[in-house]
């Protein structure tokens, strides 16, 4: 029997090792093992009393007494711990401990054994249910690569991913999990980022692309220059923040823990009063058993764990569970423009040549300057030229860039210019009137060093396109009764206004600096005619929006894969760039809050009803030990329904 219990305890410890703390694992293993040993001893004791000779009756009673003591001892110790700690679970066990001791004192060893056994089994099923909800969160742990193929002078060497350092080159073959964050330096492949971002469509990766630990290489072999390894990777940060979120407590949970301290003395008073009035110890014992507020204590944590699991599956990181409750009450959404409702990437959408010059001449001269610059305008020019002519080679020449103004390229006798109108004026060009365009306008010019002849070739028109999902996301926010949707940007009003009109926002606030965004968020909080401040949700890219994200009641950073700044500044992080996850999270937060309220109602009503029935003698201690799990079961199943959220 002892060997069987030890085996069960060992198996249980291995099952729970990746999720529960060491103390929790030991407590569950001890409870289950003691329940199995006590169950065996109880059967032996009953057999000796019922089937054995009369002289063995005392031995049978001693055996049952030992069984009761073994199974009740962990609960008694845990309940005693609640006398000097604020652990609500320990305080709840005080009632079961008192019931077991009272049953033993009255000689009812069957009740004294079976009540703790049933309670232990209930705790085990409770933990199994919570672990089911945590399965999605555990998936992050399974994403960790077990080995990395480090490229050395002697070839490839298998090493522990945690031993990698910045600058190391690792080889990743098809089917392998990426062992570190880094940059692709050789090869092309398709990368599955679904477990990190929640987006099912794989992304292409080639030289220069950033890739992240935990993603799966699908097609080609690539080499990666390591940037971050171990716990410093995006995956490591995710695990760390998820663990912190699971341990965090919502306002509801804090209120429950605050009042449960008064609950145990109240139950003891009721049990003592019933014992005094009825002189029936079994009724008092039944009250102590059914009054255990386990369902009440699980009301918040079980729903919140399910919510965190669903969020993890959607590629959403919630840094503290309290923000789930805050998100459910959001009334105003303030959205940053660049990188949030737009792609944050300039595209060349048109060209207006001057005089007799053609668009091809304009592109040739712009490309001569752009290929040597990393400015977003230059990148957009190079992308557009390569899209029309993939084989276009870079011209050889001397390139000089003036930060924030433009680029000059000297190729042979010709000097090409790509830049702002005021900068070209300083270079001696007579600039024509700028066209009416809602986005950035960049001019292209050319000079002949032999004759000093200067001519403006024309201008290039750029735009940052709205995300395809942004309009749908804002419509969904409307359906969720968000009162105001505001577009906030540092861009010029003539650039931001058309985007705001296209998306259907209530107001566009443009030409604001990062510190002015903070004031704009404060203004939105108190903009309503009511005296009560409104709850404001702020969404940005998490980089230059940190003050605004911090000022909002909830700050959400979008597309934060690999961005430490975004993870630090935001309360909720969307690892992908799909804005539709935002209304989905609001719906999930409201469903979670509703589940918590339902759980609380059942967690309060069921024990109170059971106490009345036990006081009337309708519910016996053994029946109470079974029935008091009704509330727990409802709470767990009700919370588990959240896992079906899509």
UniProtKB/TrEMBL annotation:
<dbReference type="GO" id="GO:0016887">
    <property type="term" value="F:ATP hydrolysis activity"/>
</dbReference>
<keyword id="KW-1133">Transmembrane helix</keyword>
<keyword id="KW-0472">Membrane</keyword>
<dbReference type="InterPro" id="IPR044492">
    <property type="entry name" value="P_typ_ATPase_HD_dom"/>
</dbReference>
<dbReference type="GO" id="GO:0046872">
    <property type="term" value="F:metal ion binding"/>
</dbReference>
<feature type="transmembrane region" description="Helical">
    <location>
        <begin position="600"/>
        <end position="619"/>
    </location>
</feature>
<dbReference type="GO" id="GO:0005524">
    <property type="term" value="F:ATP binding"/>
</dbReference>
<dbReference type="Pfam" id="PF00702">
    <property type="entry name" value="Hydrolase"/>
</dbReference>
<dbReference type="InterPro" id="IPR023214">
    <property type="entry name" value="HAD_sf"/>
</dbReference>
<dbReference type="InterPro" id="IPR059000">
    <property type="entry name" value="ATPase_P-type_domA"/>
</dbReference>
<dbReference type="InterPro" id="IPR008250">
    <property type="entry name" value="ATPase_P-typ_transduc_dom_A_sf"/>
</dbReference>
<keyword id="KW-1278">Translocase</keyword>
<feature type="domain" description="P-type ATPase A">
    <location>
        <begin position="143"/>
        <end position="242"/>
    </location>
</feature>
<feature type="transmembrane region" description="Helical">
    <location>
        <begin position="28"/>
        <end position="51"/>
    </location>
</feature>
<dbReference type="InterPro" id="IPR001757">
    <property type="entry name" value="P_typ_ATPase"/>
</dbReference>
<dbReference type="InterPro" id="IPR023299">
    <property type="entry name" value="ATPase_P-typ_cyto_dom_N"/>
</dbReference>
<keyword id="KW-0547">Nucleotide-binding</keyword>
<dbReference type="InterPro" id="IPR018303">
    <property type="entry name" value="ATPase_P-typ_P_site"/>
</dbReference>
<dbReference type="Pfam" id="PF00122">
    <property type="entry name" value="E1-E2_ATPase"/>
</dbReference>
<feature type="transmembrane region" description="Helical">
    <location>
        <begin position="63"/>
        <end position="84"/>
    </location>
</feature>
<keyword id="KW-0479">Metal-binding</keyword>
<dbReference type="InterPro" id="IPR036412">
    <property type="entry name" value="HAD-like_sf"/>
</dbReference>
<dbReference type="GO" id="GO:0005886">
    <property type="term" value="C:plasma membrane"/>
</dbReference>
<dbReference type="InterPro" id="IPR051014">
    <property type="entry name" value="Cation_Transport_ATPase_IB"/>
</dbReference>
<comment type="similarity">
    <text>Belongs to the cation transport ATPase (P-type) (TC 3.A.3) family. Type IB subfamily.</text>
</comment>
<feature type="transmembrane region" description="Helical">
    <location>
        <begin position="284"/>
        <end position="311"/>
    </location>
</feature>
<dbReference type="GO" id="GO:0016463">
    <property type="term" value="F:P-type zinc transporter activity"/>
</dbReference>
<feature type="transmembrane region" description="Helical">
    <location>
        <begin position="259"/>
        <end position="278"/>
    </location>
</feature>
<keyword id="KW-0067">ATP-binding</keyword>
<protein>
    <recommendedName>
        <fullName>P-type Zn(2+) transporter</fullName>
        <ecNumber>7.2.2.12</ecNumber>
    </recommendedName>
</protein>
<dbReference type="GO" id="GO:0015086">
    <property type="term" value="F:cadmium ion transmembrane transporter activity"/>
</dbReference>
<keyword id="KW-1003">Cell membrane</keyword>
<dbReference type="InterPro" id="IPR027256">
    <property type="entry name" value="P-typ_ATPase_IB"/>
</dbReference>
<keyword id="KW-0812">Transmembrane</keyword>
<dbReference type="InterPro" id="IPR023298">
    <property type="entry name" value="ATPase_P-typ_TM_dom_sf"/>
</dbReference>
């Amino acid at each position: 029997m002892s060997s069987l219990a030890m085996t069960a305890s060992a198996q249980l410890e291995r099952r729970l090792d990746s999720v529960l703390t060491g103390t929790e694992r030991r407590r569950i293993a001890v409870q289950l093992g003691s329940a199995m040993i006590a169950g065996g001893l109880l059967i032996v004791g009953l057999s000796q009393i019922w089937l054995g000779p009369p002289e063995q009756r005392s031995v049978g009673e001693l055996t049952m007494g030992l069984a009761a003591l073994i199974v009740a001892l962990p609960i008694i110790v845990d309940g005693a711990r609640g006398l000097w700690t604020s652990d609500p679970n320990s305080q709840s066990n005080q009632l079961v401990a008192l019931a077991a001791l009272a049953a033993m004192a009255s000689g009812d060893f069957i009740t004294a054994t079976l009540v703790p056994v049933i309670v232990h089994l209930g705790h085990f099923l409770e933990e199994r249910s919570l672990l089911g909800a945590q399965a999605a969160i555990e998936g992050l742990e399974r994403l960790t690569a077990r080995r990395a193929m480090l490229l050395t002078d002697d070839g490839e060497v298998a090493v522990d991913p945690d031993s990698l350092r910045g600058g190391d080159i690792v080889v990743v073959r098809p089917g392998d999990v990426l062992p570190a964050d880094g940059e692709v330096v050789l090869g092309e492949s398709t990368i599955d980022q679904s477990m990190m971002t929640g987006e099912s469509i794989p992304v292409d990766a080639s030289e220069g692309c950033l890739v992240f630990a935990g993603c799966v290489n699908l097609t080609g072999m690539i080499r990666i220059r390591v940037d971050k390894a171990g716990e410093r990777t995006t995956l490591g940060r995710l695990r760390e923040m998820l663990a912190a979120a699971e341990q965090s407590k919502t306002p509801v949970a804090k209120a429950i823990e605050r009042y449960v301290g008064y609950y145990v003395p109240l139950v003891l008073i009721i049990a003592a009063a019933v014992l005094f009035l009825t002189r029936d110890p079994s009724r008092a014992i039944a009250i102590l058993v059914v009054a255990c507020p386990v369902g009440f204590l699980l009301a918040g944590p079980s729903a919140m764990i399910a919510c965190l699991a669903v969020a993890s599956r959607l590629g959403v990181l919630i840094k503290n569970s309290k923000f789930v409750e805050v998100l459910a009450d959001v009334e105003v959404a303030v959205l940053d423009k660049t990188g949030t409702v737009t792609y944050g990437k300039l595209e060349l959408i048109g060209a207006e040549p001057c005089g007799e010059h053609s668009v091809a001449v304009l592109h040739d001269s712009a490309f001569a300057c752009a290929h040597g610059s990393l400015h977003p305008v230059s990148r957009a020019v190079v992308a557009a030229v390569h899209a029309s002519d993939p084989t276009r080679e870079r011209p050889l020449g001397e390139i000089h860039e003036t930060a924030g103004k433009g680029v000059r390229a000297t190729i042979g006798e010709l000097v090409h210019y790509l830049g702002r109108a005021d900068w070209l004026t300083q270079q001696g060009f007579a600039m024509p009137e700028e066209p009416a365009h809602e986005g950035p306008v960049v001019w292209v010019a050319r000079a002949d060093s032999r004759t000093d002849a200067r001519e403006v070739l024309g201008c290039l028109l750029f735009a940052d396109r709205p995300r395809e999902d942004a309009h749908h996301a804002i419509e969904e926010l409307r359906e969720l009764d968000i009162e105001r949707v505001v577009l906030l940007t540092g861009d010029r009003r003539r650039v931001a206004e058309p985007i705001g009109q296209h998306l259907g926002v209530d107001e566009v606030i443009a030409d604001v600096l990062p510190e002015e965004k903070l004031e704009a968020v404060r203004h939105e909080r108190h903009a309503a005619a009511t005296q009560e401040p409104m709850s404001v949700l702020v969404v940005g890219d998490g980089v230059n929006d940190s003050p605004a994200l911090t000022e909002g009641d909830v700050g959400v950073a979008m597309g934060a894969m690999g961005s430490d700044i975004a993870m630090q500044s935001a309360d909720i992080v969307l690892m992908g760039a799909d804005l539709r996850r935002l209304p989905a999270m609001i719906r999930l937060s409201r469903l979670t809050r509703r589940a918590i309220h339902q759980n609380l109602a059942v967690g309060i009503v069921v024990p109170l009803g059971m106490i009345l029935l036990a006081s009337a003698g309708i519910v016996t201690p053994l029946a109470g030990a079974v029935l008091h799990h009704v509330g727990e079961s409802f709470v767990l199943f009700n919370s588990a329904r959240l896992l079906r959220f899509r």
